[in-house]
Amino acid sequence: MNALRILSLLASFLVLLAPPIMLTDAGTGNWSIEAVAASLLAVVAVSATFIYIGVNGERMIRKRPQRKIGGVLLLIPIVTGLVLMVMLHEFAQMVASGMVLGFGLLLFLSFVYPGIEAPSRPMRQREQQDPNLNLLPPHQQG
C-alpha cells in the first residue's frame, strides 16, 4: 500500500509535467480559451486527486467518510481518462490518457473498494430469566 501511495504522489507530479511536454509537439492548434482553461482545470483536479490519495491512503481504508471523498475524487481521473481516450487521435496522448485511466482504476480498487470497517465485537445476547428456574418461592421474590 505504501508503494501505491508513493506512486500516487509521483503520478500527481507527472500529471502536471506531461501535458506541457506533449503539447509542445502537437500544439494547441485552434483551441478556444474555454477549452484551454477546462484542460488546465482537469489537469489540476487529477493531480490534486492523486495527492489526496497519496496523503490519505491508509486512512481511507479504515474511515468511511474519507473513503467516500476518495471515491468521488477518483472519478475525476477515471472520467477524464475515458473522455480523452475518446476525443484524442494521437497515439502518445491516447497512451497517456489510458495510463491516467488505468492508474485511477488501480487506486480505486486498492483504496476505496476494499473498505474495512472498524472491527467490532458482537454484542452478547441478553440473558433472559426462565420462569421455571425460580428457586425461591413466589413470596420471597422481589
List the helices and strands and how they pair.
Elements: H1 2-26, H2 33-62, H3 64-87, H4 91-112
Helix pairs in contact: 1-2, 1-4, 2-3, 2-4, 3-4
The main pleated sheet reads as: none
H/E element string?
HHHH
Note the beta-strand portion.
under 5%
> Care to count the β-strands?
0
- How would you sum up the global shape? rod-shaped
How many domains comprise the coordinates?
1
How confident is the prediction overall: mean pLDDT? Answer: 80
* Secondary structure category: mainly alpha
Distance between the termini: 60 Å
Give me the number of helical elements.
Answer: 4
Computed over alpha carbons, the radius of gyration is 27 Å
What share of the residues lie within helices? over 70%
Low-confidence stretches: none
How do you describe this structure in short?
The protein is mostly helical and 142 residues long. Helices cover 71% and strands 0% of the residues.
Can you put this structure into words, describing what you see?
This protein is mostly helical. It has one domain (2-112). The chain has four helices and no strands. The chain has helices at 2-26, 33-62, 64-87, 91-112. Helix 2 (33-62) packs parallel to helix 4 and helix 3 packs antiparallel against helix 4. The longest helix is centred in the middle third of the chain and has 30 residues, at 33-62.
